[in-house]
Amino acid sequence: MSTIKAANIKKGTYLLYNNAPHYIVKTQFVSPGKGSAFTRTKMRNVFNGAVFDFNFKSHDVLEEVDIESKEVQFLYDDGTDVVFMDPRTYEQFTVSKTVLGEKAGFLVQGDMKIFLTFYLEKVIGVGLPPKVKMVVKDAPDAVAGDRQTSGKKAVIMETGITVYAPLFIKTGETLLIDTETGEYVSRSNG
Questions:
Q1: 58 within 8 A of 5, measured Cβ to Cβ
Q2: 22, exposed or middle or buried, with CB in 10 Å at 0-12, 13-18, 19+?
C-alpha cells in the first residue's frame, strides 16, 4: 500500500479508513481564513455501501488501497447476482447486485467496456462506459396538452429501468442513456 496526503485526495481514489477500503465519491479542498486547511470528502465503504462525509486535515497521511481492475464481459443476470467473464481467460466472476447497486440496470448484452475493481481478490466495484445503448421496451403514447412533465414521459427500457425521455420516443427505438445520471441523452442509430 502507498500513502497519500489528504490535500492530494481526488475523486475515484480508494483509501483504507477504519480498516476497510473506501471509495472517494467527492472531494473539496477548503482553506478557511482562520484555522488549518482541510479536505472535505464524501466516501463510500465498499463492503457495506455506507456513504458519509468526513473532513481530513490537509497534513494527514492516509493509506491508498491497492486495487486491481479487469476488463470483463457481461454474461447474464440471474436475479440476485450478475455474472461476468474475462474474455481473455474465460474466468467467470459472480457479483452480488448489492455491489452493483443501480448500475445493474444499465447492463445490456453486447460489447460494453465494463471493468471490475478487485481488492484482495474480491470484487468491490464496477465501472461502466459513460453512455450505453438500450432499446425501449414500453413507451406509452404522449397525452396532448400535458405540460406537467415538461415534455418528457416515463419509458421502460429493455433491462426494466425507467428513463424520462422526450414525448416523441416510441417502443422499439434505441436510446443512449447516461450511466452516471440515468438520464436520456439522445436517440441512437443502432
A1: yes
A2: buried
Whether this prediction's pTM lies above 0.90 is answered by: no
Tens digit of pLDDT for each residue in 103-156? Answer: 888 888 776 788 988 888 888 888 888 888 888 888 887 666 555 556 788 888
- Write a three-state SS string for the chain: CEEEEHHHCCCCCEEEECCEEEEEEEEEEECCCCCCCEEEEEEEECCCCCEEEEEEECCCEEEECCCEEEEEEEEEECCCEEEEECCCCCCEEEEEHHHHHHHHHHCCCCCCCEEEEEECCEEEEEECCCEEEEEEEECCCCCCCCCCCCCEEEEEECCCCEEEEECCCCCCCEEEEECCCCCEEEECCC
Which residue type sits at 75? L
Q: Which residue's C-alpha cell is 468491490?
A: 124
Domain annotation for the chain: domains and CATH numbers: 2-64 (2.30.30.30), 68-127 (2.40.50.140), 131-187 (2.40.50.140)
* Residue that has been written with the C-alpha cell 479542498 in this structure: 29
Tell me the average pLDDT across 157-182.
86
